[in-house]
Amino acid sequence: MALDGQGPAGSPTRVTVADIARDAGVSIATVSKVLNRRPDVAAETRARVNALLAERGYVPSTRTRNKARADRPARGGLVDLVFNDPGSPWATEVIRGAEVAARAVRASVVVSALDPAPRARRRWLDDLAERGSLGLVLAVSSLSPDEQAAVRRLGLPVVLMDPVGDFESTLPAMGSGNFGGGLAATQHLLDLGHRRVATITGPMRYLSSQARLAGYRAALERAGLPVVPELVREGDFHHASARAASEVLLSLADPPTAVFAANDEQALGVYATAQARGLRVPEDLSVVGFDDVPMSQWVLPPLTTVQQPIRELAAIATRSLLGPAEGEGLPLRGRVELPTTLVVRGSTAPARAAGT
Predict the structure, then answer these.
(1) pLDDT digits (tens, 9 = 90+) for 251-276
(2) 5, 14 contact by CB (below 8 A)
(3) CA 325 to chain centre
(4) Domains detected in the chain
(5) Which of 232, 210, 116 lies closest to 162 in space, CA to CA?
(6) What pTM value is reported for the model?
(7) pLDDT tens sequence across 80-97
(8) Three-state SS for 177?
(9) What is the DSSP string of 87-112?
(10) How far apart are the C-alpha atoms of 347 and 301, rounded to whole Å?
(11) pLDDT, tens digit, 9 for 90 and up, residues 144-161
(12) Are residues 303 and 296 in contact, defined by beta-carbon separation less than 8 angstroms?
């Protein structure tokens, strides 16, 4: 293996990154991250590697220093984070994750809300060209074919988070296991004995909404239960739409005993409808959300929900735009999907026996 470091002055031997990695019990990539002061290394591991570097007198060779300098991501640059709705709790978590990743390399995040007005969107494209962005993270947002072509002409890399609409299949996309999350949420309610399980989806033009609904359907089918059309209502990921949808559901002659809402904000809309009708959560109605944004822990009762790693996804998407050192190991194409986890709190309970 090539020698990539040297010992103290006058030392007859040179210390390599491979030597440090072997003695620390970590990978060469981990030692490289410590040397480049990357944030994604556990504190204990970082301390162990730094102690060995000091003890062995490791000094990077000129070649290694030059390579690290060439690979280092741009400093002080901008990454554009683009939403249809940057004011949602989900978007807040995306912004936090992106800012942490950008701050690690002294870059900044510019948050844009896509205005539906054509003139405003043209102005946004002009601003994008003028500020010299390093790239775009399109977070649950959509661009027309002409707008996509304009971004390509600027030579800007694009990463998608839960894409909306049609984009080039070659663009990298980040997302969570939406199908598995919908399946787990619905299965949890079925395991509690609920048989009239409703769902309030997100907008069905969103791929994430389609996948969560598919998970709901799959859980019912596995249980040998039909998918009842009147128990499936489309929302728009906002509180008001869930209020309206849950009013319809709870007005049915045979109302549901449980509702799976496709995000936490909609789940809280179900809470509000239940309270207005004198129903108790979870005694009279079990509710499951999706996202696990911070407010899901603060409401009463705390919301059972599907946790998706929103901040981590945003950080991965942002790092992939900040140069080889920050995007190390990420695919340039395809979809990066992180798993979801069901978090059981106080909003779900066993179904009540008939007549009780």
Answers:
(1) 999 999 999 999 999 999 999 999 99
(2) yes
(3) 21
(4) 16-55 (no CATH), 78-176+312-324+332-338 (3.40.50.2300), 178-308 (3.40.50.2300)
(5) 210
(6) 0.73
(7) 998 888 888 999 999 999
(8) coil
(9) TSHHHHHHHHHHHHHHHTTT-EEEEE
(10) 6
(11) 778 878 877 777 788 888
(12) yes
